[in-house]
Amino acid sequence: MGSFSIWHWMVVLLVVLLLFGSGKVSNLMGDFAKGIKSFKKNMADEADESMEASAERPAGTIAAPGTTTTVRETATTRHG
After folding, report:
1. pLDDT at residue 73, rounded to an integer
2. Would you list the DSSP string of 51-63?
3. Comparing C-alpha atoms, which of 39, 40, 16 is closest to residue 28?
4. Can you say whether residue 66 is alpha, beta or left, with left for phi > 0 and alpha for psi between -120 and 50 degrees?
5. Quick one: CA torsion of 55, 58, 59, 63, rounded to 10 degrees?
6. Closest by alpha carbon to 16, among 1, 4, 26, 6?
7. Which of 3, 23, 56, 72 has its CA 20 to 30 A from that of 17?
8. Is residue 45 domain-resident?
9. Does residue 76 fall inside a structural domain?
10. What's residue 2's pLDDT?
11. Is the pLDDT of residue 37 over 90?
């Protein structure tokens, strides 16, 4: 009673096919396979150029706690 038998899985498969139709299930499995192939292909690539470009220059710096920094304002102020 702890596991499903082959007949239970057959009934589940029949219900899924009746609800979604064989065409949708086939398309879904095809899309799933394409996704896995694409994932494997991208994992096999040596280096990604977009990753290298962002690794060359840091995005910015963060000041240590307790230090003061001077910030220059380049925006003009509006008088209303």
Report:
1. 47
2. HHHHHHS-S---P
3. 16
4. left
5. 150
6. 26
7. 3
8. yes
9. no
10. 64
11. yes
pLDDT (0 to 100) of residue 57? 59
The share of the chain scoring above pLDDT 90, in percent, equals 22
Domain of residue 42: give its range. 6-56
**75, part of any domain:** no
Residue 40, in any domain of the structure: yes
Q: CA–CA distance from 40 to each of 1, 27, 28, 49, 78 (Å)?
A: 38, 20, 19, 18, 54
Contact predicate 47/56, CB 8 Å: no
Give the count of domains, the chain. 1
The pLDDT confidence band at residue 45, using thresholds 50, 70 and 90, is confident
